[in-house]
Amino acid sequence: MAPKVKLGILVPSSNTSLEPLITAIISPFLKTNAISVHFSRFTVTSISLKPDALSQFEFGPIVAATKLLADAEVDIIGWSGTSAGWLGFEVDEELCRRITDETGLKATTSVLGLNRLLGLLDVGKGRGPGLGFVTPYLDDVQAKILEVYGRAGLDIKAESHLGKTVNVEFARVGEDVLDGQMVDAVAKLGEGKKVVSTFCTNLRAAQRVEAWEAKYEGLVVHDSVATVVWNMLKITA
Which domain of life does the protein's organism represent (predicted)? Predict the structure, then answer.
């Protein structure tokens, strides 16, 4: 029997984390054949604000990778990446429109899924929970992410970043380092309800979410690998 829902995921070429993490997330559904997941890649090797790094996210190669997923007759396309965090949310919105125009399939992204979740929780809007970001990125990339979310009206109370640029190295960040970043972010957010996004799909962070939420009272963690899967399933439901 064919799976009831087939998810098509776009992967940065040098990302070695998101495929095993997504497979683990949906593993209960794999046993019942309710969901299957399929991947396609396009070139991404470094993250910075330099022109050659920004050009990796031009629409042409991404849409070409999407067409390969469409050949598998997936039900929806998800871009498992956080580039709209520094390029602007409108870039992901336009990408989704182009994917739909080219393939006839609905599409979403890690960032759009995260933003939907933040809206549901009224995060970063004064009365809602405080918001923080944990990433591996360079200073200027991190600053751009905070700027983009600030323009959207969200007040970022905490952040932690590692100053890295080579994408394949993000997957080598150990749990001890991520735990330290989370300690830093949670301390800055203080008491009460709070939300932290682990904002990079090549960080092996999703498997730590349950432990972090159990350790820190009032904490909700939205990992960018999980947010695209969540939104894809909400849309297809």
Answer: Eukaryota
